[in-house]
């Protein structure tokens, strides 16, 4: 991913805009990308210093300097460099230098110091050959790391990654992000919402009214994602910013999308607005058993009932090439992967003798006029069929907890248990016993036993 200082952007009034590549500039940039890719392939086995020197030797004009730095950064991100874990280079250097000093002091008049003899002697002590010892002496230095592999891509693919990374780098400085998305394919919504949960971002989700999109397809009503940016936090700014940036590909996979962000830009942290929009390339779609949640397909807070999500039909488009389809399928599988802590909790419940069994949730809990909630799990009682929703709120901010408290207090009729990290310093008592929701505050790892106890005693 690019850093903010690598972004080719300019200010126009109170807006921050990315500097688009003109056709001639893009052609030149693609040629530059191809050169860097071929040089990187040739550098496999060389040191990082040699790799940096090879790419840095490519002639670049002053106006393309920032572009070149960005392309080289993205290529380096796809490289695997050697990390020696079984040696202590500091100790090796100390032994070599001390032995060299001893030999120098013992030299007689006219005798010459033999560097290779010192290396051979110390290498024999370590049961190494001299060449290996010499390589390990400075393996802790970045420039000495050896390039072991390169996840190659085409020049055109690198340019697409570059354009995505520019927008991602801007979002690293965001205070607030508002994304509107529209889809006829329910699978894209599922992937987006799962990614949102996986990254543990602070968000508010609202359904957009029907007809709010571009009018294409049977359903043009979409969703509004109102996401807190990293610069709205007091801690973990960098980590949270990276998580937010990782959501962008899932948004751009939507058939139609817009993003409006408030960012703090430059060394002076100037408040600016940033906006981008687009449409995904049409893909072959099929009618599925689960559709885009809509008015009759959500868990509606007003009625407290559920119905099967409606299936959505989309027009067929030309099928993508096999490699692209495989890449897309792999991306969707990754997007649907549950957060590690949730998956670990499910595994711990599977080992317990309990009537409560978790399954991954697919419902969206909606309280009209207040907001929507996307649970992580549904716990179902084996004998009674009773269900309790479960959502992990992460550890970024206490604000996420208060939003859920307000949702429950406003009348959300579904039983739900919210898991909250003790780092947020929130009491379980903020939700009273008379309400259908409850808090479970945990330290470190979520306890299956503690959650089962709350489910069994009807704490939610």
Automatic annotation (TrEMBL):
Biased composition (Basic residues): 281-299
Listed name of the protein: DUF790 family protein
Region annotation Disordered: where it falls in the sequence: 280-336
Feature: compositional bias, Low complexity: 303-328
Cited InterPro entries: Bax1
Organism whose genome encodes this protein: Haliangium ochraceum (strain DSM 14365 / JCM 11303 / SMP-2)
Pfam family, one: DUF790
């Amino acid at each position: 991913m690019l850093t903010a200082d690598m972004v080719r952007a300019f200010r126009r009034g109170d807006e921050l805009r990315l500097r688009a590549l003109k056709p001639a500039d893009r052609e030149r940039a693609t040629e530059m990308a191809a050169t860097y890719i071929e040089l990187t392939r040739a550098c496999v086995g060389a040191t990082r210093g040699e790799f940096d020197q090879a790419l840095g030797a490519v002639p670049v004009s002053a106006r393309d300097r920032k572009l070149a730095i960005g392309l080289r950064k993205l290529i380096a991100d796809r490289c695997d460099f050697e990390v020696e874990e079984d040696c202590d280079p500091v100790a090796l250097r100390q032994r070599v230098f001390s032995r060299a000093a001893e030999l120098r002091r013992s030299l007689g008049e006219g005798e010459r110091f033999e560097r290779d003899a010192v290396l051979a002697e110390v290498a024999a002590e370590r049961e190494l050959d001299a060449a290996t010892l010499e390589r390990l002496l400075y393996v802790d230095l970045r420039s000495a790391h050896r390039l072991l592999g390169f996840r190659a891509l085409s020049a055109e693919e690198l340019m697409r990654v570059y354009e995505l990374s520019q927008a991602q780098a801007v979002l690293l400085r965001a205070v607030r992000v508002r994304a509107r998305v529209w889809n006829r394919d329910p699978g894209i919504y599922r992937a987006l919402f799962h990614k949102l949960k996986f990254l543990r971002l602070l968000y508010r989700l609202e359904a957009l009214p029907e007809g709010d999109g571009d009018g294409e397809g049977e359903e043009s009503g979409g969703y509004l994602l109102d996401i807190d940016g990293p610069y709205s936090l007091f801690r973990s700014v960098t980590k949270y910013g990276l998580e937010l940036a990782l959501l962008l590909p899932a948004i751009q996979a939507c058939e139609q999308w817009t993003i409006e962000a408030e960012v703090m830009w430059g060394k002076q942290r100037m408040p600016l607005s940033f906006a981008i929009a687009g449409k995904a390339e049409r893909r072959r779609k099929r009618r599925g058993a689960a559709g885009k949640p809509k008015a009759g397909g959500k868990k509606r807070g007003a009625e407290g009932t559920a119905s099967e999500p409606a299936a959505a039909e989309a027009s067929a488009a030309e099928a993508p090439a096999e490699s692209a389809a495989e890449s897309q399928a792999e991306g969707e599988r990754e997007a649907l992967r549950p957060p590690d802590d949730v998956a670990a909790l499910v595994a711990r419940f599977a080992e317990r003798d309990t009537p409560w069994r978790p399954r991954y949730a697919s419902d969206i809990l909606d309280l009209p006029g207040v907001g929507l909630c996307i649970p992580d799990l549904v716990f179902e009682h084996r004998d009674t069929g009773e269900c309790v929703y479960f959502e992990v709120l992460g550890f970024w901010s206490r604000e996420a907890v208060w939003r859920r408290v307000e949702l429950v207090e406003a009348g959300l009729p579904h039983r739900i248990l919210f898991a909250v990290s003790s780092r947020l310093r929130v009491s379980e008592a903020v939700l009273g016993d008379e309400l259908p929701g409850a808090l479970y505050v945990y330290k470190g790892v979520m306890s299956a036993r503690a959650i089962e106890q709350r489910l069994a005693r009807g704490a939610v």
